[in-house]
């Protein structure tokens, strides 16, 4: 540590607590995580209601896609709005139309933000003073512009809630937070305006890009591996039949489909470095001293691409998640797309429900085909906080014709 860091670090630690949930730690994080989970559950998170909402969203998306059957259409961002709607209903009590111009603009902003930096924070994290010297070149101006637009949107939503909130019941997570801010007994100063805005921003960012990118990759892999697509469809035809929509109860009887979903997550590594955390005390990890305050990045990519365990990690082989009887096997320590331990993804249940129900709905309804002579198609994505599929088109053929 330099002399400057020795002086500055304790001050930073004392006065600079990161708000929100993703980058906070200590008591603030504990309280916010507990509060968010508890209240999201009150609005259906992890329950049958949530499944129903996802099914409704997937039905609307499929109907919309059917209008463009048999034509090449862009698919890399097809799931953005549907996926976000379920979370937004629990957070803010409303959903967006699939063609809502304001939301599409916002989602584009998030995509751009996730491309501009990576989880290590990039150049700005190593040399934060650059923002005063070359703010445009180092990306600082762009990040501030993006965040300002996000904040404006969320501030408007919160202001609208403030005008209409009713003290006797909460319509959504924002209402519940506003109630908590106004509680006089057991008053807790960490429930304040800044924290509400940061919590909304964190959930909005964490909840949209990750799932829609994973679904985008899922479609790409089905284009690249038509035999796998066919096997998933046959398994679903056998278990679900052709006369109803796939649901969460079918999952247990669809081990091949589940193995395909897992293999896509393993191979695509959408959040390659998880989320950056900070060691809150001096820690000894297998003989390595990690000083308090060190920023820790967990390379989920290295776990999923570990040659010693997976043997041929580059190969796309859903069967690696099945045993000789065709039953699903999940190697606990070697498959961790949602992280591990106390900081494990807060949205895992919603993410898994969205991922499974949107994917099965797509394959249940469509044959997904490559556009003839498409030379651009690539399983490589764009780098950033999350890996995202590069823009691609597919042709959807209805399976019911
Ligand atoms: C396929 C989709 C998703 C993937 C792959 C994913 C993955 C992850 C990963 C790897 C982490 C870091 C875990 C760690 O630090 O060890 C994380 C954290 C987090 N995720 Fe997700 N996530 C997904 C969807 C969601 C959704 C839908 C939400 C919205 C509710 C969400 C909210 C969060 C939050 C709030 C955290 C921070 C948790 C904490 O630090 O306590 N995620 N996610």
TrEMBL record:
Sequence positions that bind heme: 345
CDD domains: CYP15A1-like (cd20651)
Gene Ontology molecular function: heme binding; iron ion binding; oxidoreductase activity, acting on paired donors, with incorporation or reduction of molecular oxygen, reduced flavin or flavoprotein as one donor, and incorporation of one atom of oxygen; steroid hydroxylase activity
Pfam families: p450
This protein's GO CC annotations: cytoplasm
Gene3D superfamilies assigned to the protein according to its UniProt record, in alphabetical order: Cytochrome P450
Single GO BP term: xenobiotic metabolic process
SUPFAM superfamilies: Cytochrome P450
Highest rank taxon of the organism: Eukaryota
Cofactor(s) the protein requires to work: heme
PROSITE patterns xrefs: CYTOCHROME_P450
Organism (species): Ignelater luminosus (Cucubano)
Presence of keyword Cell membrane: no
InterPro entries registered for this protein in UniProt: Cyt_P450, Cyt_P450_CS, Cyt_P450_E_grp-I, Cyt_P450_sf, Cytochrome_P450_fam2
Protein family according to the UniProt entry: Belongs to the cytochrome P450 family.
Protein name as catalogued: Cytochrome P450
Keywords assigned by UniProt, alphabetized: Heme, Iron, Metal-binding, Monooxygenase, Oxidoreductase
């Amino acid at each position: 540590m330099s002399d400057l860091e020795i002086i500055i670090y304790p001050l930073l630690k004392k006065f600079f607590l990161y708000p929100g949930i993703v980058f906070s730690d200590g008591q603030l994080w504990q309280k916010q995580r507990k509060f968010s989970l508890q209240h999201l559950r009150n609005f259906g998170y992890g329950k049958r209601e949530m499944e129903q909402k996802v099914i409704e969203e997937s039905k609307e998306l499929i109907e919309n896609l059917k209008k463009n059957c048999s034509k090449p259409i862009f698919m890399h961002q097809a799931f953005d709005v549907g996926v976000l709607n379920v979370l937004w209903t629990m957070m803010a009590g409303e959903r967006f139309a699939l063609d809502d111009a304001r939301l599409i603009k916002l989602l584009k902003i998030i995509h751009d933000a996730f491309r501009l930096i990576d989880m290590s924070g990039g150049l700005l994290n190593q040399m934060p003073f650059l923002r005063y010297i070359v703010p445009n070149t180092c990306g600082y101006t762009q990040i501030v512009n993006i965040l300002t637009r996000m904040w404006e949107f969320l501030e408007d939503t919160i202001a609208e809630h403030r005008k209409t909130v009713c003290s006797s019941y909460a319509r959504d997570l924002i209402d519940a937070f506003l109630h908590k801010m106004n509680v006089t007994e057991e008053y807790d100063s960490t429930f304040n305006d800044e924290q509400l805005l940061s919590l909304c921003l964190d959930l909005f960012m964490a909840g949209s890009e990750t799932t829609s990118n994973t679904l985008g990759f899922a479609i790409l892999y089905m284009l690249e591996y038509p035999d796998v697509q066919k096997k998933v469809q046959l398994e679903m035809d056998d278990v679900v039949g052709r006369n109803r929509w796939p649901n969460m109860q079918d999952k247990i009887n669809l081990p091949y489909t589940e193995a395909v979903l897992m293999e896509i997550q393993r191979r695509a590594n959408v959040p390659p470095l998880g989320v950056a955390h900070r060691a809150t005390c001096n820690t000894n990890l297998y003989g390595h001293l990690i000083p308090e305050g060190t920023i820790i990045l967990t390379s989920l990519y290295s776990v999923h691409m570990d040659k010693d365990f997976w043997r041929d990690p580059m190969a796309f082989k859903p069967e690696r998640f099945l045993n000789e009887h065709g039953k699903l096997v999940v190697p606990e320590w070697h498959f961790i797309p949602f992280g591990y331990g106390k900081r494990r993804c807060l949205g895992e249940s919603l993410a898994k429900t969205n991922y499974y129900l949107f994917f099965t709905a797509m394959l249940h309804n469509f044959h997904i085909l490559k556009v003839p002579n498409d030379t651009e198609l690539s399983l490589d994505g764009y780098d950033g906080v999350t890996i995202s599929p590069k823009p691609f088109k597919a042709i959807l053929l209805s399976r019911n014709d």
